[in-house]
Amino acid sequence: MTRDLTQGSPVKLMLAFSVPLLIGNVFQQFYNMVDSIIVGQYLGMQALAAVGISGSIIFLILGFCTGLTGGFSVVIAQRFGAGDEDELRHSVAMSTVLCILISVVLTVISVAATWPLLELMNTPEDTIQFTYDYVVVIFYGISASVFYNMISGVLRALGDSKTPLYFLIVASVLNVVLDIVFIRYFYMGVAGAAWATIISQAVSGFLCLFYTAKKFPVLKFQRKDWKIRASTCGLLMRIGSPMAFQFSITAVGVIVLQGAINRFGSVMVAGFSAAAKVEQLIEQPLATMGVTIATYAGQNYGAGKIDRLKEGVRKCVWLTLAATALGMLIAFFFWEPLVRLFITGTDDQTIGIALNAAQQYLYIVIIFLVFLGLLFVYRNALQGVGRSFMPLMGGVAELVIRVAVALMAPLIGYAGVCFATPIAWAAAAIPLIITWFIYEKKILLEPAG
Description:
Elements: H1 10-43, H2 45-82, H3 85-120, H4 128-140, H5 142-157, H6 163-185, H7 189-215, H8 230-262, H9 266-302, H10 306-339, H11 348-367, H12 369-384, H13 389-407, H14 409-418, H15 420-445
């Protein structure tokens, strides 16, 4: 059931690994998109704006969890590449313990901080209660998200990108059904959409767990695997923490920027939120190549195949550029029908304002999309070999740009604010590209850590 990425054609291996992963990423986005579509269609534009506003806050916490589990999977991929099954199982066991502890702490903190944070973000009065109802439920279900991300990260570290996909498809269908049932028939409002997401993620995680226990002999645990070892926990946190904080630092910038966008009112926020959903969809091939190169780099670095690693990074860049071109074409020609999936109403003038806001943002984004693609490749390649400092600094660069633009929002207007995220991509990507090429040999010949 595992896939060894240290032998064979890099391009064929990366494509075979990335296609199921891409489908899985699209279905993962499907969770949030279905929430937004059903909320927009059944509950109106204010509720849609609320779900959009919630994205930046949710990203702050769940992004931290995603980065952390991603860092853990880097260590696991290196152990798998080195052929050390005992250390592989122990790393998975310690990852599980750490995830449980961190999930509990984050749930308590995030639930308590939700309302004050929404007020700090200048959330419009007509949407703040909707936003709170959605966000707080998602935060109550943090453990479900961490649960699924950790198990799927372990499987991908072992080269299996198909198993998480199968169960994610099941969960996505369940999410659609529960969305409609909770909102249309149980009248649970935006909280119903959040509960549908949490329940679906939990189901997907449990299905992955049961299947893995039966089909992956390499993960048959023994009592000794669960013995707490400070060295292993320290390594996992040393690799995982910078990746987690990188996500959170980026999220802080997104929150500050969202606060600036909120000043333009709920209609503009709804348009921006709908455009952001389309943006997230066209980004999925780029994010997929990032996860692919992280696993590829981790396995080949663990196996000591440095030349093969460098070759894989170069070819991943070309695959990413091709995916970027496709995303740009989709956003340019099909932005309106995609945005209209989320926006509804009878007031043509209001809908027109929201559509114009969405178009402005998407047309600006596609100009800079190539920087995002390169950011995913080089950031994940560095993380795959255990080098997380520069990716963390890239997150700091993104934060600085977004905050600077947000502070100028009253002067530069909505269109100017739309440039914040794309410029932040460039500010983060360029230093990482330079870092990879200048220090490539030095980085790859030193021990990871």
